[in-house]
Amino acid sequence: MSELLRHQDGVAVYMDDVLVYGDTPEEHERKLQCTLKTLEDTGFKLNTDKCLLRQKHLHYFGHCINKHGIRPDEVKVKAITQMQPPKDITDLRRILGMIHYLGRYLPNLSEVMRPLNHCHTTDHESRDVTAPAWRAPGHC
């Protein structure tokens, strides 16, 4: 599907999801109709029960998308800010994965996370990542 729609302006495809966007309702409608026609002309069938059309606000893969842009989902951010310190390297890996998705929103995230990433990538498999290391990441 991504190959089929790759030349269409205002269309993003991820797996079998098709996101159509425009700066104005009229532009969005024009792009939507063009996309629907392309899919119909090539034999693609849409499951209308799963289609969300003409949405002004969308939660998608941990992000909120609206006319103001893309930002992290507040529920995901809240979950990250309320996490307990990691108890071991497995916890640290889980937490780093959760935080990683914020990278596009936080310009210096890689610098801030460097000490914890160091704990993850060096030979700390046998060491616990304790609460003090969480508060002072440079001391793994």
UniProtKB/TrEMBL annotation:
Transmembrane segments: none annotated. Its EC number is 3.1.26.4. Pfam families: RVT_1. It comes from the Eukaryota. SUPFAM superfamilies: DNA/RNA polymerases. Residues 1-65 form the Reverse transcriptase domain. InterPro entries: DNA/RNA_pol_sf, Retrovirus_Pol_polyprotein, Rev_trsase/Diguanyl_cyclase, RT_dom. GO terms for molecular function: RNA-DNA hybrid ribonuclease activity. Belongs to the beta type-B retroviral polymerase family. HERV class-II K(HML-2) pol subfamily. This is ribonuclease H. It comes from Aldrovandia affinis.
